[in-house]
Amino acid sequence: MVLATTTMMLFPIAIAGDKIDIGVCYGMVADNLPPAAEVIALYKKYSIGKLRLFDPNRDALQALKGSDIDVTLGVKNEDIPNIAASVDGARSWFTTNLQPYTNDITFAFVSVGNEAIPGEFADSIAPAMKNLQSVLSDDNLNGITVTTSVSTAVLGTSFPPSASVFSDDAKGAIVDVLNFLTIKGSPLMVNVYPYFAYASDPVHVRQDYALFTATDAVVVDGNLTYHNLFDATVDAVYWAMEKEGVHNVGVAVSESGWPSAGKGNFTTPKLASTYNKHFKQHILSKAGTPKRPGAHIEGFIFAMFNEDLKPAGVEQNWGLFYPNMKPVYPVF
């Protein structure tokens, strides 16, 4: 939820070499996807510089060797308790899933769990992060950032952004995570989806506000003005963190996107293309948000492909590409 504009601009500063400084999530809940080597070739064809894996898929990791794509590697939620239980448990996960690839792949982040706060694994996340960090430090891999990915369900209140607080269910676990992230000033990964707010309440959430296309300020919060829901959501997380005394932890957007089908006029290729092009532009602009202008925000579009084994409807239609690798709509 970010910059409002009606024209597309290019930001050469955001391109390192021939890589575009934005990521796409490589989801695999499907039975008709191309082989991993072809998928990685597709990332390279479109100069997508970053990739998020939700778990240590060996075929994907093998294909990523030597690709020069920055990888965010997820720890499956069900693996969190064992990693949290001991440094030996963390070492075992590391030895199996990460260490064999560290010489050939650039790992930017390890995300301990996805949307696991609140939930049954929530209290184990911070201990697991600490144990994994210890293992990485022992192997001189401090360049890999350990974090977790949460949804906006961690917020109890999110409007206006300055009123945001963490929910009672999430607060204990999220504060433990933030205390860990504070040590290195590492970002919290957050899945940010203006689509869901718009689709659930189109009477009160303007479409142009959700799509980054509003030309006027839609929300005024004190001395901050918001032209788009993305910025308001990210700033809501910043406000909630600051109320817990945390001021040096940023936000990395681990997922954002718009489905191209599944809910009638709410989900068309045109709307999905509009959202993702503007999301891409906003991330590459390095504009930050009204609350933290110029703050660096990592960004990942969800997702690379439509995934046919997800529930029928919207959930199957987030992909930038069909499984035959043809674009659903243009973004890159």
Automatic annotation (TrEMBL):
Keyword Isomerase: no
InterPro entries recorded: GH, Glyco_hydro_17, Glyco_hydro_17_plant
SUPFAM superfamilies per UniProt: (Trans)glycosidases
UniProt keyword Hydrolase, yes or no: yes
Superkingdom of origin: Eukaryota
Keywords, sorted A to Z: Glycosidase, Hydrolase, Signal
Residues annotated as signal peptide: 1-16
Family: Belongs to the glycosyl hydrolase 17 family.
Protein name per UniProt: Probable glucan endo-1,3-beta-glucosidase BG4
Species of the source: Coffea arabica (Arabian coffee)
Classification lineage: Eukaryota, Viridiplantae, Streptophyta, Embryophyta, Tracheophyta
Gene (name only): LOC113695015
